TrEMBL record:
Keywords: Protease inhibitor, Repeat
Pfam families found in the cross-reference section: LXN (PF06907)
SUPFAM superfamilies reported in the protein's UniProt record: Cystatin/monellin
A single GO cellular-component term on record: extracellular space
Transmembrane segments: none
Name of the protein: Latexin
PANTHER family: LATEXIN
Natural source organism: Otus sunia (Oriental scops-owl)
């Protein structure tokens, strides 16, 4: 099945800034193991994040110990300012996981980062191991997921590994 969509996207960093988006989504019949094909076109530009990306990158690179954090957002929905970039990185990476695992009958959303740990690397990339909770909106199921994310401000985000975890991993 093919869907034609017209959306207005809100910039997560600048709520007053929006761009129009048209998209075509093609779900493959019969094969639930193939991600849908997505073609899209943006009209306009989102806010440039280079400066904020570099500030975050340099802050994490300068830490004496690898970053470790839990429960982002907290149980009241709050994200501390210093954890906001970690949350946004998880949000972008989980978008890839959601796309790769979606069908016409799913509606996933990142609910929470249960645990994130920075992995020490010898190159210029930052690497994080995330344990996240995805909320499947149609069934109200909370699904634990593990993902390993590489990031560099000039090269973007890459999910190098991801896997659905057993239910008990969400506790």
């Amino acid at each position: 099945h093919k869907y034609h969509l017209e959306l207005e996207l809100e910039d997560v960093l600048d709520k007053d800034s929006t761009v129009n988006c048209t998209a075509e989504v093609l779900y493959h019949l019969g094969n639930k193991n193939i991600a849908p094909d997505v073609q899209f076109k943006l009209e306009g530009e989102l806010k440039n994040t280079d400066e904020a990306d570099n500030v975050f990158y340099n802050r994490i690179k300068s830490l004496e110990k690898e970053l470790v954090a839990e429960n982002i957002p907290d149980n009241h929905g709050n994200v501390s300012p210093e954890m906001e970039p970690i949350h946004l990185l998880a949000w972008v990476a989980s978008g890839y996981v959601i796309w790769q695992n979606s069908t016409e009958n799913t509606k996933f959303q990142l609910a929470q980062i249960k645990h994130v740990k920075q992995v020490k690397r010898s190159d210029e990339y930052l690497e994080f191991d995330y344990k996240i909770l995805l909320h499947e909106m149609l069934t109200q199921e909370i699904i634990p997921w593990q993902m390993t994310v590489l990031w560099h401000p000039q090269h973007g985000v890459e999910v190098t590994r991801d896997s659905r975890q057993p239910k008990e991993a969400s506790e």
